[in-house]
């Protein structure tokens, strides 16, 4: 049988394989295989390199070349065979192979070893390629379209959670769906047809039950949470005031009562949103403990059920910016002034900083040069004494403003301050007040409550040096 195999397959293969296409294929495969193996060795023994473009070369392009080279070998065989067939030149008997011939025997050994090596390389390469495509480097950095989400992700609490942990489910089906979707997106990017900005919400996101609850226990009792926020005024002194709020986060308490913000919403509230950002929610339905249902409807509906997306409320309806926090210019500047990068000691910095942050720049590159330059020009012409004594603070503030801008505004994606609303809270966006606006009424006249004290105790609102903070020893 071995003899037959050799006569019927090996000899013709060798005969037909001796053609330029197959030989080139072999060369390409060998060259890319050797390069990849060398890179893996460097990776194992050397310093890992996070450059996403190296990843594209080594995990996607080279494996592609490797396989293309392999594919060229049978193509060359086929072409040569057809050519000879047409010319009627197929030999009746293929050149003899003689296993007693040492050189030939070694030739066969090499082919065998090379085939095993190739199989190994292909399997390692496809594994590495798949793993690479799951990495935040690939998702976030190799494609400039993802730049805004990646930038925000890097400074969020979830900067160490892989994109795929939230965006792609486990199992072969969702893996396949994600790859189909990803290929579509690559085509969109290639042909410049992608939407700007990338729309939010992500309709294909799985319910939070499968994403967030893999790591967070929703029923974990958080109880009360203290929130302290600083804000600065537009006067010369950037007068600082603070707001101190105790949020009733609740959860599942020791007596199995579901209480507070976390306790009351999950699993039994449905709503209909009539706009694509889920900001307008005129209709809300709650399933009560006894199985009955209460509908809270905005008065403008006059009892009708609106058309729109119907959804069971989950974590993402409040925490929609958990991984990609874009803030407003005011929030960004207040935070930076409280934390220090933009010093409140600089006169007028709050007013001037906001003006510079909200101005229009063609690109982040332009903002990077114009913001610091204009800040300096402002102090030079209006307050030369500041430039004389606090030039270093002005420089730091300029850099600080640039950072805030670069984290939140991406002109090339048409993403700017406020493009993506944050549903937590109610100060900058409707957030909780999408439903808790006092206008969502049930038939019995009760409303989804808007009492401030239902959600939080306001211990201080915009007070300068609130006493409660010094009582708590926080200030
Ligand atoms: C902790 C979970 C989580 C991680 C990790 C995560 N995302 Fe998201 N992502 C979300 C949520 C939640 C939304 C908003 C969905 C919504 O409102 O429906 C979102 C939205 C997006 C959007 C749509 C545009 C927008 O800003 O809303 C893009 C694009 C995106 N993510 C890309 C990424 C990339 C790239 C990474 C990795 C670098 C990543 N995400 C990591 C949870 C996550
Ligand atoms: C793979 C695990 C993982 C997943 C999935 C995950 N988280 Fe987290 N999350 C964390 C970790 C870890 C932290 C704490 C980070 C820290 O304290 O630095 C965190 C922190 C948070 C915080 C507090 C962060 C803050 O800004 O103070 C919120 C809110 C949160 N997660 C919500 C969510 C939501 C909503 C989802 C689903 C879209 C989600 N998480 C998915 C691991 C995860
Ligand atoms: C009705 C709105 C709402 C829903 C739904 C919601 N949260 Fe929250 N969550 C909040 C608010 C408000 C806070 C406090 C925000 C802050 O710290 O600024 C919070 C805080 C948190 C924190 C931080 C807690 C801490 O100790 O600081 C985590 C983690 C969290 N939520 C996870 C989740 C997860 C997971 C889900 C879904 C199972 C969820 N939340 C559903 C409103 C919500
Ligand atoms: C999609 C609509 C919707 C959104 C958005 C929403 N809620 Fe609610 N919330 C409800 C409904 C419905 C109830 C139940 C009202 C009732 O039982 O009378 C409720 C009840 C509550 C309660 C308990 C009230 C009570 O009487 O004890 C708190 C606290 C609360 N919500 C906080 C929040 C916070 C904080 C946010 C924003 C982060 C928020 N909700 C966003 C629909 C919503
Ligand atoms: C449905 C729940 C809910 C109701 C009702 C509510 N709030 Fe709030 N409020 C919140 C949440 C949640 C936050 C925290 C937002 C965050 O994490 O940044 C907040 C934050 C605040 C803050 C500090 C926020 C900041 O960014 O400076 C003030 C001030 C405030 N609320 C005032 C009020 C007043 C006044 C009322 C009554 C008219 C009220 N709230 C009613 C949920 C509510």
Structure description:
The chain has about 475 residues and is α+β, with helices and mostly antiparallel strands. It folds into four domains: about 1-135, no CATH class; about 140-195, no CATH class; about 225-320 and about 425-470, no CATH class; about 330-415, no CATH class. The protein is about 50% helix and about 10% strand. The longest helix has about 35 residues, at about 50-85. The protein is elongated, with a radius of gyration of 32 Å.
Quick description:
This protein has helices at 2-17, 20-45, 52-86, 102-133, 136-141, 147-154, 163-167, 172-190, 208-211, 260-264, 329-339, 349-358, 364-382, 384-408, 452-455, 467-471; strands spanning 223-232, 240-252, 258-259, 269-273, 283-287, 293-298, 309-312, 440-441, 456-463. The protein has 475 residues and is of the alpha+beta class. The chain has a 5-stranded antiparallel β-sheet with strand order 7-4-5-6-8, with no helix packed on it. Strands 1, 2, 3 and 9 form a 4-stranded antiparallel β-sheet that branches.
Bound molecules: heme C
Mean pLDDT value: 88
Strand order within the widest beta sheet: 7-4-5-6-8
Number of strands: 9
Helix and strand element order: HHHHHHHHHEEEHEEEEHHHHEHEH
Strand content: 5-15%
Count helical runs.
16
The backbone outline, from C-alpha atoms, is elongated
Low-confidence segments, given as residue ranges, are none
User: How far do the termini sit from each other?
Assistant: 89 Å
Q: Specify Rg, calculated over alpha carbons.
A: 32 Å
Number of domains: 4
Which structural category fits the helices and strands? alpha+beta
**Largest sheet entry:** 5 strands, antiparallel
Helicity, in percent?
Answer: 40-55%
């Amino acid at each position: 049988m071995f003899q037959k195999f050799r006569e019927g397959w090996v000899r013709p293969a060798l005969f037909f394989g001796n053609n330029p296409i197959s030989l080139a294929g072999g060369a390409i495969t060998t060259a890319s295989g050797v390069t990849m193996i060398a890179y893996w060795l460097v990776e194992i023994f050397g310093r890992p390199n996070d450059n996403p473009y190296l990843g594209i070369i080594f995990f996607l392009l080279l494996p592609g070349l490797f396989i293309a080279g392999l594919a060229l070998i049978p193509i060359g065989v086929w072409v040569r065979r057809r050519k000879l067939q047409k010319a009627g030149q197929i030999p009746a008997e293929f050149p003899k192979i003689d296993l007693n011939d040492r050189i030939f025997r070694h030739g066969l050994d090499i082919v065998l070893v090379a085939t095993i090596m190739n199989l190994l390389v292909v399997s390692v390469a496809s594994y590495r390629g798949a793993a690479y495509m799951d990495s935040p480097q690939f998702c976030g950095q190799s494609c400039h379209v993802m730049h805004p989400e990646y930038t925000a992700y890097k400074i969020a609490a979830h900067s160490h959670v892989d994109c795929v942990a939230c965006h792609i489910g486990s199992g072969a089906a969702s893996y396949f769906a994600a790859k189909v979707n990803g290929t579509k997106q690559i085509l969109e990017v290639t042909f410049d047809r992608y939407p700007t900005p990338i729309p939010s919400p992500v309709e294909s996101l799985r319910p939070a039950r499968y994403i967030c609850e893999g790591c967070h226990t929703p029923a974990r009792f958080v109880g009360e949470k203290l929130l302290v926020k600083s804000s600065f005024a537009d006067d010369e002194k950037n007068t600082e005031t603070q707001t101190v709020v105790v949020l009733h986060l609740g959860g599942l308490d020791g007596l199995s009562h579901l209480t507070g913000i976390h306790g009351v919403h999950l699993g039994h509230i449905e709503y209909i949103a009539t706009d694509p950002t889920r900001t307008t929610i005129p209709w809300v339905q709650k399933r009560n403990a006894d199985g009955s249902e209460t509908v809270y409807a905005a008065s403008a509906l006059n009892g009708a059920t609106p058309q729109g997306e119907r959804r069971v409320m989950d974590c993402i309806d409040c925490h929609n910016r958990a991984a990609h926090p874009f803030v407003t210019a005011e929030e960004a500047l207040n935070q930076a002034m409280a934390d220090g990068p933009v010093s409140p000691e600089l006169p007028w910095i709050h007013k001037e900083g906001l003006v510079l942050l909200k101005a229009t720049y063609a690109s982040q590159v332009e903002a990077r040069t114009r913001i610091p330059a204009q800040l300096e020009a402002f102090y030079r012409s209006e307050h030369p004494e500041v430039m004389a004594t606090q030039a270093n603070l002005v420089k730091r503030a300029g850099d600080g403003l640039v950072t805030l801008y670069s984290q939140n505004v991406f002109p090339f994606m048409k993403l700017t301050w406020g493009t993506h609303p944050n549903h937590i809270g109610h100060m900058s966006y409707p957030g909780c007040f999408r439903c808790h606006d006092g206008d969502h009424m049930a038939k019995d006249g009760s409303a989804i409550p808007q009492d401030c004290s239902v959600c939080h105790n306001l211990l201080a609102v915009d007070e300068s040096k609130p006493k409660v903070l010094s009582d708590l020893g926080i200030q």
